[in-house]
Amino acid sequence: MTLIGHIIFLLLLQSSVLLAWQDYKDYQVYELTPRDSSEESLLRKLAREKPQWDFLGPIRWHNESTVRVMLPPEEASSLVSLFDSHQLRYRLLIKDLSPLVQAQRAENLRSKQRLQLPHIDVLAAFYTHAEINAYLDSLPERYPKRAQVKQFGWSYERRPLKVLTISNGDGRRNKPVILIDGTVHAREWISPSMALYIIQQLLDNYEGNQELLQDYDWVIMPVVNADGYEYTHSESRYWRKTRKPTTDPDCVGTDINRNFAHEWGHDAGSSSDPCEDIYRGERPFDQPESQVLRDILLQYSPRLKWYLSLHSYGNYFLLPWGYTNTRFTDSNRYS
Amino acid sequence: MTLIGHIIFLLLLQSSVLLAWQDYKDYQVYELTPRDSSEESLLRKLAREKPQWDFLGPIRWHNESTVRVMLPPEEASSLVSLFDSHQLRYRLLIKDLSPLVQAQRAENLRSKQRLQLPHIDVLAAFYTHAEINAYLDSLPERYPKRAQVKQFGWSYERRPLKVLTISNGDGRRNKPVILIDGTVHAREWISPSMALYIIQQLLDNYEGNQELLQDYDWVIMPVVNADGYEYTHSESRYWRKTRKPTTDPDCVGTDINRNFAHEWGHDAGSSSDPCEDIYRGERPFDQPESQVLRDILLQYSPRLKWYLSLHSYGNYFLLPWGYTNTRFTDSNRYS
């Protein structure tokens, strides 16, 4: 089929769909209140004689009960004159049914589209990076005023690294920021789940948690180490590092959490051996994932009040520094 | 590709997937409890010297805190002899990691499959007959011991007419039955939603409603008039009857609720005019949908304690009879 042919076909298809759907243009609904059993009998008689008058619900006379009748536009004048001639009590309830029918149809379609958005149950399963990204991408559609997805770069294997920002939608700019990341270490599966749980608490359970968004915006990155995390799902459950090759052809991956520039290599907790799980890389920030995390921190640093990196396991709440046991000089800020 | 070729290809594909997934066969996890800072230092030294020993979590000596180390099978004997020679406190925590890894993987896949089953939100949208059937069909997978779907026939337009039976799964046979149907009248959309709501209350909210299933089985048919109901979604919102042609070429459909054999035609509330919304049909049970409803009632009649047909609207609770105003002789059964 040619392009023109396609367009004509689509136009025909569309108009046939529109024609098929009855729009109830100028259909009216009247409400009657019969006063006694003779009026009830009259209405029953009319219901039999006028198949085009659509009596909604049973016709009964008791306690000011009402009966409604729907009718096509061409019947309206005959109904009114008949009702008037019998001095029935009635009123016009709906002048034109079509906007109501259309509104219900549109609202129903919208509701179903919302229900078809990706949904996840963080307490029921662990999700892959692709599933988490699809879910993040659906949130601005669900919460157009409160959720925004930003991509800050790519993993070594070209997975998009995404960040969700959450506000209360009050339009106040430059609120202080709380930044949370997850899955710096691939095998720590509870970490992205925790990030997703926080997201759902802030979005789905806004009612219960709105004070958390009163004076803060939240920036949440559920999966930093996207390649490693996918690898734990598809290949090796206990993989920890990135998936970028190293100088050692037998050993892959760098520990993102040892790859930052601050005091890089000046610690006992990292290694220069590419085969170790705590390998710090050849140079600071030689991993695309740590670069992305740096760029996010730099972007939000003027507003950043709190940064939490979710790991597992050990029931620790670790404060700076990481490279030394010396106390962070400003540590009373954490007291 | 030939059939043999396909089979070989699939076998290769499967084994490559199986080979790619690391099974952690005979990987072990040991738990250590360092007694003092010198033992902590020794463990830190081992962590550096033995890249194949995977220390899970930070190595710290304080308050009987433990550290766990995971290692491949070939490392086990060297670990044990080293720990013993240093008289460390340790115990074997996991003898073989593989069943745990496999179990988590399998459970995760199962959870996700469950989440991918059709889900509906009866309070958010109205669903088509096809959507309701897909949902009903998913319930035995969710509740294998408590839900069962039976098809009792077809609508005039060959839509499958399905019934859900719900029990508490205690295995007690021949409990009294509560039968509920919905959507005898096509346009009464709240009726299938109400039936689905009852289904979800009995299945998803079993905890809160289990006394309702203690001594009764429930048989629920959300959509009797499948053709008419689909027609209200696709064509004409206020269609009421079936979609089977009548003796009048201009008028389609019969009122299922006037088509039953008991005192058929002996009432003021039905009509012999095929163009009326209360048309009773040419003969009793000349509609496939009323036949199906009859067959369901006959099948369950020895156990049937209560039958409720959901309609809208009017806030009425109608008791027998329907064809006459005479009181049902046994009406004190309903008091």
UniProtKB/TrEMBL annotation, chains A, B:
GO terms for cellular component: extracellular space. Keywords: Carboxypeptidase, Disulfide bond, Hydrolase, Metal-binding, Metalloprotease, Protease, Signal, Zinc. Its cofactor is Zn(2+). GO terms for molecular function: metallocarboxypeptidase activity; zinc ion binding. Residues 1-20 form the signal peptide. Pfam families: Peptidase_M14, Propep_M14. Belongs to the peptidase M14 family. Residues 125-335 form the Peptidase M14 domain. It comes from Drosophila pseudoobscura pseudoobscura. SMART domains: Zn_pept (SM00631). GO terms for biological process: proteolysis. This is Carboxypeptidase B isoform X2.
